[in-house]
Amino acid sequence: MTKSVLTKKEPEKKLLLTKKKKAGRSTQTGQITVRHRGGGVKRLYRIVDFGQSKFQIPGKVIAIEYDPNRTAYLALIEYQDGEKRYILAPHGIKIGDEIICDEKTEVKIGNRMKLKNIPIGTEVFNIELMPGRGGKIVRGAGTAAKVLGYEENYTILELPSKERRKFLSECFATIGRVSNPEHIFEDIKKAGRNRLKGWRPTVRGKAMRPVEHPHGGGKGKAPIGLPYPKTPWGKIAKGVKTRKKKFTDALIIQRRK
Fold this sequence. Notes:
The chain has 257 residues and is an all-beta fold. The protein folds into 2 domains: 3-182, SH3 type barrels (Roll), CATH 2.30.30.30; 204-249, Ribosomal protein L2, domain 3 (Irregular). It contains 1 helix and 15 strands. The longest helix has 6 residues, at 191-196.
């Protein structure tokens, strides 16, 4: 699915929200609290129906649109009752295709149903972590999880990171793969494009003074002078586990590779 499939139309006005700029500075002191952010073009937020709460009501794809806030494309759906909503566009969906969200339905790209009713080996995306709370994971461009099997009240999925994890079988997921898989080959080409996205220049720690970064100092092109790299605040930067102990650890069968 390339950009040629995108519909040349203005976004749906009723499904737009204004998006406040967060330039990375504190509102109280004006100091930088989130580094490397600022500037960028203005953009409106598209309201996306991640849960697809229109149950048992068929909808037709009337447009496939670009979204400046995410890597995936959006599909504009018009339901039989006349309501329009944005959803994450699956890869390979076309204008005029019909989709439906139901407890059990046809295994077809774009349809959404409970994990317990999806056959083994099927690719899914926009997966719920808790029933009724909407899709939370596997939403990036070109990503998909695979159904591996079932165990009591759980369905076992292999995530894009190759982590194998249990999900409650009552959770919903959409059949297929997220649109725009070519995003992985995107070439920024020039610094100006990143500035338009709101990313400011990033200076290497070893190019700074010692007072500014643990890697700083030295003469000429010097090494960092440490047994392992550190963050600007002195914490280990690479190879250290950052995940805290969570109750969901029991649901992970195999860690990501």
